[in-house]
Amino acid sequence: MPDGYLPIFLFLIVSILFPTVTLLAVRVIRPSQPGVVKQEAYECGIPAESTARGRYSVRFYIVAILFVIFDVETIFLYPWAVRYRQLGWFGVAEMGVFLAILVLGYVWAYRRGALKWV
Predict the structure, then answer these.
(1) What is the crossing angle of helices 58-75 and 84-111, to 10°?
(2) Which class is 2-111 in CATH?
(3) Cβ atoms < 10 Å from Cβ of 72
(4) CA distance readout (Å), 10 to 1, 4, 22, 23, 116
(5) How many Cα atoms sit within 13 Å of 33 on the Cβ side?
(6) What's the pLDDT tens digit per position in 55-69?
(7) What is the mean pLDDT of residues 42-71?
(8) CA-CA to 42 of 20 to 30 Å: which in 1, 10, 61, 107?
(9) How many CA atoms lie within 13 Å of 111's alpha carbon, on the beta-carbon side?
């Protein structure tokens, strides 16, 4: 019985040792000479105009979240497209309901003003 677990334990040991040994080796090998110039923010060779702690409008985050949500939702179309012939009309109806819910979410977000920039 324990013979079957031997590869699992070996894999567990290797998966713990590899990153640990790599990080320790890099810490020993790398040069460490911090300075004022090295600790500045790099912006394509141009000196930074201000700090990165500025305030941004919440609309940027809302649009980004909406993009991620609708982008991830459209990923669900690919498995349906692959199995389109096997699913038949039931699959078409199922995807129609899915897309209707997606469009309703988009219309709701548009009416709430989530996509307006002004």
Answers:
(1) 170
(2) mainly alpha
(3) 9
(4) 16, 11, 18, 20, 55
(5) 2
(6) 777 778 888 888 888
(7) 76
(8) 61
(9) 6
